């Protein structure tokens, strides 16, 4: 599967004809001709707040839908554990406060915006149930992943046939939170607080999600980490842009040691990071990327 303009991570898939996952990047259209403009990586509500041209964003979204051969479904993410049944609620959910969505339809592409939080993409291709959710720290603490899996189960999914992709997010080595948050997180998820590379205490969201999963009825689900595939695709895309543009994307003040984890948003220069933007306030860092799951993709 090769969706032009996306950082494709479908190499982990057991059967790429049944489902595909992909992530957009922070590249602008002047760097690589096939990539989408940066305003494409903003929700409509965020774009309005930033004074962006919503009409232009709609046009760019239409380009992506044409590329995916699917309608793109989005949510207004609010760090909750609210999950939407798209089969009942319909597909127009971008103004609905929620952080998870589930469907049995194969004519849609489910997309989650992130810029440090953990995106989770789900598929039970045997029972034809698909889902996506946004798990920031509060979402992890509030159990948004298990709420999403619960709804998948209500629609026929089973643990042994369910696959879960943990998408790019800030890693435990980089997610510095301070003592109070780290202590509370450790109490809820033992072993999932960290000492970051910045020498302060932090948390590991993916470790917490894996722990929660291991203690749940969904422990037999297959979990994929897309780090290897993202690393491979990052190398290819990085080689395709000019040295000047590479220097624009690298921020030594925030990430002086380079990329150690390809799936970490703070370390990977092709992915948006909210924490990087708040530390640097560089305009080119301000955005989110889309994490997309596509049922029955057209190869």
UniProtKB/TrEMBL annotation:
Catalysed conversion reaction: adenosine + H2O + H(+) = inosine + NH4(+); inosine + phosphate = alpha-D-ribose 1-phosphate + hypoxanthine; S-methyl-5'-thioadenosine + phosphate = 5-(methylsulfanyl)-alpha-D-ribose 1-phosphate + adenine; adenosine + phosphate = alpha-D-ribose 1-phosphate + adenine
Pfam family name, one: Cu-oxidase_4
Domain of life: Bacteria
Coiled-coil portions: none
UniProt keyword annotations, A-Z: Copper, Hydrolase, Metal-binding, Transferase, Zinc
Molecular function, one GO term: copper ion binding
Segments traversing the membrane: none
Gene3D superfamilies in the cross-refs: CNF1/YfiH-like putative cysteine hydrolases (3.60.140.10)
Stated family: Belongs to the purine nucleoside phosphorylase YfiH/LACC1 family.
Record function comment: Purine nucleoside enzyme that catalyzes the phosphorolysis of adenosine and inosine nucleosides, yielding D-ribose 1-phosphate and the respective free bases, adenine and hypoxanthine. Also catalyzes the phosphorolysis of S-methyl-5'-thioadenosine into adenine and S-methyl-5-thio-alpha-D-ribose 1-phosphate. Also has adenosine deaminase activity.
Name assigned to this protein: Multi-copper polyphenol oxidoreductase
């Amino acid at each position: 599967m090769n969706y032009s303009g996306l950082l494709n991570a479908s190499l982990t898939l057991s059967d790429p004809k049944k489902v595909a996952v992909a992530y957009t990047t922070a590249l602008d259209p002047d760097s690589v001709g096939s990539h989408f403009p940066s305003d494409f990586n903003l929700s409509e509500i965020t774009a309005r707040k930033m004074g962006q041209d919503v009409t232009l964003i709609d046009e760019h979204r239409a380009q992506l839908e044409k590329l995916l051969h699917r309608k793109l479904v989005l949510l207004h993410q609010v760090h909750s554990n609210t999950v939407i049944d798209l089969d009942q609620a319909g597909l127009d959910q971008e103004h609905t406060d929620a952080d998870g969505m589930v469907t049995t339809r194969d004519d849609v592409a489910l997309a989650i915006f992130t810029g440090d939080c953990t995106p989770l993409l789900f598929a039970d291709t045997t029972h034809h149930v698909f889902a996506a959710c946004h798990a920031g720290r509060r979402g992890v603490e509030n159990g948004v992943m298990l709420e999403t899996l619960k709804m998948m189960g209500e629609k026929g999914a089973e643990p042994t046939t369910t696959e879960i992709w943990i998408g790019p997010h800030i890693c435990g080595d980089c997610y510095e939170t301070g003592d109070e948050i780290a202590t509370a997180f450790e109490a809820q998820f033992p072993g999932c607080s960290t000492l970051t590379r910045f020498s302060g205490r932090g948390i590991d969201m993916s470790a917490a999600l894996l722990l929660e999963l291991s203690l749940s009825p969904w422990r037999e689900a297959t979990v994929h980490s897309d780090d290897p595939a993202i690393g491979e695709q990052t190398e290819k895309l990085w080689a395709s842009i000019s040295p000047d543009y590479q220097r624009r994307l690298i921020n030594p003040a925030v990430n002086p040691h380079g990329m150690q984890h390809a799936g970490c948003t703070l370390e990977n220069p092709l992915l948006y990071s909210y924490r990087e933007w708040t530390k640097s306030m560089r305009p080119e860092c301000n955005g989110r990327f889309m994490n997309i799951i596509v049922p029955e993709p057209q190869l």
